[in-house]
Amino acid sequence: MFTLKDTTPIGRRGVLELKRGTIQTPFFMPVGTAGAMKGLTHQDILDVGAQLLLCNTYHLLLQPGDDLVAEAGGLHSFINWDKPILTDSGGFQVFSLRGTNTIDDTGVHFKSHLNGDPYFIGPEESMRIQHNLGSDMIMVFDECPPSTAKRSEIQAAVDRTLRWAEKCKKVHNELCSKDVMPSRLDKCMLFGIVQGGLERDLREKCTEELIAIGFDGYAIGGLAVGETPDEMYGVLDAVCPLLPEDKLRYLMGVGVVDQLQKCVGMGIDMFDCVLPMRIARHGTILLSDGSSIRIQNAQYRNDHSIIDENSPSLLGRTHKKSYLNHLFKAKERLAETIASSQNIAITLKTMQDLRKEMDKKN
Length: 362
Fold this sequence. Notes:
alpha/beta; TIM Barrel; about 20% strand; about 350 residues
């Protein structure tokens, strides 16, 4: 159950109560695509403030398979994670396979990027897979067109997303009543996803019709895929005022620190993004003062200062820039671990600081 405690000038402050844990909002979700974070253990991300984990339906379907995960007792048991898990629907991934997929009103036929095997995901399949995984929060199956698509294509995607949302809710309710995962501690939350590209009226239509269907939370999808920040903020300006005050608001795929702060101020409660970890693996290090550095640059070869003395990450507070520069050049895996710990810690602390600031205003 989500409880909105306060609305402040810098954002909404709330609490989400789930059987597997209490989550303070607003929050950021680390992305454990296949049930793991590259270079980090589960304890590593817990130590820097992770409250839950996002896992990827598409990737888990292909490997190891949702039936195997269900056989193991669900994703929590399979990966040994006792806090909440959110799974996405797989829609973004299968629609990104343009050129190798076939879309119709029933769903999407596509081929595995691993071995070329044929698969099909539609609303019913997405719900069954996510229920097999035993997620605490699941997403409807939606069509995610590029923001550069023609208006007619975006209109068609919105209409299909809405039809699929209704189907997802029906199947979800049926699966909850059948208790397909006996180990499930509680019925999971179901989120609708607002699509519509950069077309304000289509975003508004999709939002209003999803609200009429009724969901436990509402996500805003199809952003952070190449549009400008101002275009993204324009979509939020259209959608957020329409969303129910007592429901969670989830902006998918956003993880740039200043964008997180801005979007919280516009009324968003939850985020996910692979960006902090991805740039870490390529040597861009986020720092607690809001800046970032490219650790492979020559200037850090002889820089024996600590990476970030005020870091929320123990690894960032206890290793030298010169050492991390060396590790990257030597292609040592520890480089990825130190950099990833630093970046995810800074991202999570951004949300912690926002929550603390909101609490001060009460």
